Structure formats: structure tokens, C-alpha cells
Amino acid sequence: MKNYPSHLRALALLVVSSFVISCTDAPPPAPPAPKIEYHTISLKPLNPAVEFVGRTVASEDVSIKARVSGQLLARHFNDGAQVEQNQLLFEIDPASYTAELNRQKAALSQAKSAYEVASLQYSRGKQLNEKKLLSDMDMDELTSRMLQAKASVEGAESAVEVAELNLEYTKVYAPVAGRMSKSEVFIGDLITPERQMASLVQVDPMWIDFQVSERSVLNARQKLRENGADSLDQLDISLRLPNNTVFDQKGRINASENRIDQATGTISIRAIFPNPDQILIPGMYVTLIIEGVKPVQAVLIEQRAISQDQQGHFVMVVKDDNTVEKRIIKVGNQQGIYWHVEEGLSAGERVVINGLQRIRPGITVDPVEVSAVPFESN
């Protein structure tokens, strides 16, 4: 085996090391573009809508009070129960009112007897007066007595009617059908006309009061007229409940103030909704959705495609070269799983709906189109 000079061995080692280093410095292969799923935007028919926050109000809210005083004998409902119109609610001790009625009936009998006597004397006196056997002065006296007796009968009859009413008032009935509150009185309590015994609310139908700014009123009227409605009361109204579900009944606007409140710059409007299952309870905050009558073509995308940061709502759009662009959008009302996009997107653009966590603006992606969930127009 030959022995090479040391300087040749060093040179060979340097060449080999340089080759190894050059191979190590070669750039790694680029990772594959991340796969994402997208929807191609197409316009869909949508009824334009505006939303307002309102509060439910009972269509009837009655304070149950007695018309007479007395000791409470009985209560004929359970707290919170549904009652019918004219259903018996409370009974007050009728003993004193029964006695008063009997007294007034006796007084009426006396008055009638006195009237009969006065009438008989008047008739006899008239015959005598016509024969000049009774002076005109005495005749005037008989006439006066007869008229006073007649007035006494009428007064006694009125007193009997009042006594009968007071006796009837010892029973307290429901003036309307509705749901009772807790009773505020107990058996044995002394009841007076000033004391509230309970309250009764009628919740079918239910009213919903809401305040609308003058600008919103004008915008809503103009927008809805453009889409086939002359006034708000021609439109069906949907209701979104506090748990974000949609109420299963439609309502309508049935009343509004005739002027803007100068202090608040708003107008008070009232809607009415059927509430047969009593889902709506007085005092709830709800969202009224007033829909147009003429559908328009609109951009709608699934909620899962929308993200939000300090700039607002945005989506990721796949451009023609398969790079990703962050697009700020303006969203309108929610339509099921879809959101109405009012600004920022156009038909034909590709919006990422799956794989958002794997991408960022500017990155190239491997896009795969998937079918959108069918949209049902409201």
C-alpha cells in the first residue's frame, strides 16, 4: 500500500468535506399546498328584512280588586292557573250584605204601602174637590203626600238594587280569560276595595312593544316600499326568542304612535302575535324580524365560513391563482345556517368553508369545491 504525502491526504479530506457540506446545504423540497374546501358563491332569493328589539306585553293586565269590604271566605283558583272569563275567583262573607238587602226590601214594602194609602187618599180627595167638597189647599196637600210617597218608593227600589249589587259583589269573577298571579290575600283577611287581591294577564294574543329611531323608521319604510310594501302593517313579522329560536307564529303591526318622541327621537310601535301555547311571557325581550314581500337576489354564505377579528367580520377567498385573500365583509341578518352578506363578496367568488385553521393570507392552497347546504328562502 502506497503512502501518500500528508499534504495530499489533507487536500483529499478537504474535497470530500466540501462535497458533503454542499449536499447538506441543498434546500428541502416545498411542502404540498394545504387542501381546503370551498363554496362558489351564487345569488339566492331573499326577502329583505329589518330587525328591532322589543318587549312582550300582556294584551290585558287586570288588577283584581273587590268592590265591597268584608272577610274573605274562599278562593277558587290555584296560583298561576289559567282561568276563563267570568270564572269565580274569590268569595267575601255575604252575611251583612244579605241582611242589608232584606232591610231594604222591607223598607220598599213600607214605601209601597204608604204610596198605596197616599194614592187612595189622593183619588178620594180629587173626587171631593171636583164636587167642591174639598178645598184646593187640602187637595194640594194630598197631591204632595202622594208624590212624596211615590218618590219614596222609587228611592227604596234604588236602595234594593244597590243592596243586590253589593251582595253580588261579594263574589269576584275573572273579567277576562288569562293566567292568574299568586294570590295576595288569604282566607280570613279583611278585604277592602283599595286592596289588590291578585292580578290577571291575558297572553293570547300577546303584544310586543318596541321603539324605533326616526332614521330607522324612514330607512325601513323606504326599503320595504322598494320591495313591494306600502306600509309596515302589511308585512308578516317573525320573532326570534331569547334562546335564539324562531317563534312558530307570525305577527303583524297593529298600532303605532302618531308622532316622534322629541326627547328620545323614537316612535313607539306595537305588534300583535297569536300565543295559543303561551310560549311568550310578559316581560320577555325578543327580536322582531320584519320581512319584505318581494324577494331580491342576495349573497348568502354559511356561518362556518365567517370569522371575526378587530377589523370586523371576514372570510377567506380563493383567488384565480389559488392563493388566499382575507376579505372584510358586512353581514346582515342570519337566515338559518346562512348569513346575508351585504358588502364584500360577489357571485362567482370562491369562499373557504373548511380548512381555515391551515391557511393564512397569501398562501397557495389546493382547493376542492363542495356542494352547499340547500337554502330555503324565508
From TrEMBL:
Major subcellular site: membrane
Entries under SUPFAM superfamilies matching the protein: HlyD-like secretion proteins
Sequence ranges assigned to domain Multidrug resistance protein MdtA-like barrel-sandwich hybrid in this UniProt record: 61-200
GO CC field: plasma membrane
Subcellular location: Cell inner membrane
GO biological process: response to antibiotic
Keywords on record: Signal
GO molecular function, one term: transmembrane transporter activity
A Pfam entry, by short name: RND-MFP_C
Residue span, Multidrug resistance protein MdtA-like alpha-helical hairpin domain: 101-170
Extent of the signal sequence: 1-22
Domain Multidrug resistance protein MdtA-like beta-barrel: 205-290
Every Multidrug resistance protein MdtA-like C-terminal permuted SH3 domain range: 297-358
Highest taxon, organism lineage: Bacteria
Membrane topology: Lipid-anchor
Family: Belongs to the membrane fusion protein (MFP) (TC 8.A.1) family.
PANTHER family on file: ACRA/E-RELATED COMPONENT OF DRUG EFFLUX TRANSPORTER (PTHR30158)
Protein name listed in UniProt: Efflux RND transporter periplasmic adaptor subunit
